[in-house]
Amino acid sequence: MAIPGTEHGAEVGIHVSLSAEKLGDFLGFPITNTLITSWVVILILASIAFFTYKRIAMVPGRFQTLLEWFLGGMFDYVAEVLESHALARRFFPLIITIFLFIFVANWLVFLPIVGSIGIYRGDEFVSILRSVMTDLNVPLALAIISFLVVEVTGVAMLGAVKYGGKFIVNPLRSPIGFAVGLVELIGEIVRIVSLSFRLFGNILAGKVLILVALFFMPYFLPVPLFAFEMFIGFLQAAIFALLTLFFLKLAVMPHGEDAH
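RE: above sequence
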């Protein structure tokens, strides 16, 4: 994406690129601007974790108290949904990592360096940093990870036969049950599409909306839109993490308890 402005003295309009821009290659692997931004997000999260760990004390300060309150509340909620502290300890790192990665990636794009630092290829300006979630590969990868964790957990907790019984029903014994199981199986696979495109579509739409606002009303409209998109960035991170949590809950439930 490019914010409208001038390039080499020529006036340009709104330009939206659905695919990530390639900046170069490393050992045969393409390096895109969304990949670089992902590394920046990981570096930020790793740095916060490292320095927070170094400052942990027996008598917590304000920041540590706030952090413990936030993480403790999140852990209690995960344990309540899964109805097991043992399962919560197993899956809480995944849930909180998904949330933090998406959240930081969505908020990072509001820094001035994103979209303003780049290189010229002829008359085209290519930004070095770009919103991670506007590259469909990233939401799709997260959705696949979520899907695989849910399915493997269901098989591990219930057994392959019992878990598969949720979807594969003998049509001669129960034609309705067979149809319902088939629909649930299709819905299970479609989760990959729904999770990835929900995140990708909402973030991309927000960025396009901001670009349009910057182009037509650059001094007034973007401010409330920036605040709204920051809220949307947080909301989408929470939705993705919570859906993964709820899918995990459904996966470990024995067949016949779904209604409960």
